[in-house]
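ZP: hey, is the NAP complex queued? I don't see it on the tracker
AM: it wasn't, my bad. submitting now with these inputs:
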Amino acid sequence: MSFTNKVVIVTGSSSGIGASTAILFAREGAKVTITGRNVEKLNKVEKEIDKLTGNKPLAIVADISKEDDAIGIVNKTVSHFGKLDVLVNNAGVVSYRGIFDSDYLTEFDRIMSTNLRAAATMTYAAMPHLVTTRAT
Ligand SMILES: NC(=O)c1ccc[n+]([C@@H]2O[C@H](COP(=O)([O-])OP(=O)(O)OC[C@H]3O[C@@H](n4cnc5c(N)ncnc54)[C@H](OP(=O)(O)O)[C@@H]3O)[C@@H](O)[C@H]2O)c1
């Protein structure tokens, strides 16, 4: 399948699986939006994609656990590239805290707001754009 001129958001693409996924999409011809909270790591991936593919990504510093930031990623992508074809909800955090830890519920909220609610928020914001591009 060709991704030439497809517009793809990969959340959590400042490192790890997300960074590799964004690089692969760009190599396949996609225009990619990369996101994360860490500016230095995000800049590094941005430069790598540009160097490897000549396909300059849109880099957005954002905390997806904040609703406005998450919706902003979708809006800025559509405003920059004109459409959205693919959303990869990759960003996530791992925690090894358990029920015996005093901050258990605080940690529970952090994990849920990042790994679950943010993915729902991103998908909800992206959905009208995905429906539009699927029909064209
Ligand atoms: N590696 C594994 O074996 C494995 C196994 C099962 C599931 N997973 C899941 O696969 C995904 C990627 O894993 P990985 O190993 O590549 O992890 P990673 O290297 O730690 O990458 C996680 C990414 O998520 C971003 N992120 C985390 N919290 C964020 C937030 N609040 N707002 C915006 N970005 C946020 C990080 O960016 P910043 O730090 O720049 O914010 C980073 O780019 C995660 O969801 C992980 O839980 C991984």
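AM: back. Residues 87 and 123 are 7 Å apart (CA to CA).
ZP: great, adding it to the tracker
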